[in-house]
Amino acid sequence: MAGEITETGELYSPYVGLVYMFNLIVGTGALTMPKAFATAGWLVSLVLLVFLGFMSFVTTTFMMEAMAAANAQLHWKRMENSLLAHPGPTHLPPSPPCQEEEDEDSSSGSDSDALTQDNYEQAEKRPILSVQRHGSQHLFEITDRVEMGQMASMFFNKVGVNLFYFCIIIYLYEDLAIYAAAVPSSLMQVTCSAVGNDSCGVEAHTKHNDTDPCWGPLRRVDAYRIYLAVFTLLLGPFTFFDVQKTKYLQILTSLMRWIAFAIMIVLALVRIGHGQGEGHPPAANFSGIRNLFGVCVYSFMCQHSLPSLITPISSKRHLTRLVFLDYVLILAFYSLLSFTAIFCFRGDSLLDMYALNFARCDVVGLAAVRYFLGLFPVFTISTNFPIIAVTLRNNWKALFHREGGTYPWVVDRVVFPTITLVPPVLVAFFTHDLESLVGITGAYAGTGIQYAIPAFLVHLCRKDTLLAFGSGAVNKHRSPFRHTFWVGFVLLWALSCFLFVTANIVLSETKV
Question: What does the pLDDT look like over 316-335, one tens digit per residue?
Fold first, then answer.
């Protein structure tokens, strides 16, 4: 559950962690980026991509600092409990010099409950001098996996906690709606054409309407909704159970994803090299910035998963540098994928799911490759849908959970899974405009999770750390953007993004 302190998991090296973070950020959402690039123009898109990547890096360092502060509170609470259980003339053990701290066991639920209940109101009563005298850096080791919801419970008040869960639930709903629309949309594009069944799938330079025929009397929109119904019937039941042991399935889907990305980039480069590139994107088209902004924010989303990703890293000595390197590599990859796409294909022929542009006979002659690229979003997204659904269901439970209370069986096993599954399927039923879905998700809920929540967390955790341990305690994982200016700048940017996107939507809807 997102609000709990969970098991750290099997440790891995920093470079394995770098690969995991790369895989987490670069998901299937990257497939919507080429069309957004073509719509907004290559220069505007590149500048905005770099800036949003930088902003995401800033808030990632905020999250790492907040995770370390949360771990310090847990470690200190554990030491206090140990002293109460074994009273005597003892003192807190100092950190061994020139020696890596060993990972401690994951904290129990009682640690979490105690920290949440007292809300650190006793912080000023702690023996601050003993912390400063014996060294405090070992307290800030990230050894317990404290999820984002638990950090909200530790540092926010009740209103802040509820707002956090509201934001994460909205984001997960929109995420599920994107997944529920992407799979049947991909199947429809591959299996339908304007002239009936066509083994080449998407035709060159053809813009299809939902009312175009697919199979006999069935329209394309009918085929889409049939696929959506099948998708819901096959994967929806997983929402009513727990999804476990998906490690090897995730490895397989990650492998498929990178093979597909590599094939698309190589094929686009080959076409451009042979003089078959059709794209002539403008340098700037400001009318496309709204969707581009949302797509870019969504494509850098990782803050909510950082505790699961960062905590198992065995050595965190150069953690900030590794994360920075990851962001540089991700920017390079996004730029390569998008630029090869917009110069290979005409802007008006780029589809919401970029992979579907390769389901054409004139682009890919080999049928096996055509179908693999056209259908790979189906396989990768289908494996993620149950995991996201269970996460959303658990967040609903955490939001309404009361200490010591349990849910009736009907509420626990029927009501929560149903309210998790039905809304995104309904959204997908009425629209399969993936670029708009991704743009809205990134622009609203994504802005809250990626900017606002990390900024508030780091600001409040710094105040709490100062109260608990005094000015002599130094968080070894503190952000390089430690000045208060950066917190204010991130919050101002988040507000500006929210207002800009809202104004843009209102003006677009009211434009005659």
Answer: 888 999 999 999 999 999 99
Buried b / exposed e across 157-185, counting CB within 10 Å, b at 16+? eeebbebbbebbbbbbbbbbbbbbbbbbb
**What does the H/E/C string look like for 109-158?**
HHHHHHHHHHCCCCHHHCCHHHHHHHCCHHHHCCCCEECHHHHHHHHCCH
Give tens-digit pLDDT for 181-206. 888 988 888 888 544 444 455 554 55
Structural domain includes residue 90: no
CATH of the domain at 26: 1.20.1740.10
Angle among Cα 414, 418, 419 to the nearest 5 degrees reads: 125
- Is the residue at 99 inside a domain? no
Asked, for residue 381, whether it belongs to a domain, the answer is yes
Residues pairing with 145 in the sheet: 6
Question: 433 lies in a domain?
Answer: yes
Q: What CA–CA distances, in Å, run from 119 to 87, 167, 403?
A: 25, 22, 14
Nearest CA to 358 among 252, 214, 260? 260
Q: Give me the domain span that covers residue 427.
A: 5-82+107-510
Q: What is the pTM of this model?
A: 0.80
Give the span between the Cα atoms of 440 and 290, in whole angstroms. 9
Q: Is 313 helix (H, G, I), strand (E, B) or coil?
A: strand
List C-alpha distances in Å: 230 to 223, 224, 262, 353, 390.
11, 10, 30, 20, 19
The number of distinct structural domains making up the chain is: 1
Report the candidate in 496, 342, 378, 352 with the shortest Cα–Cα distance to residue 438: 352
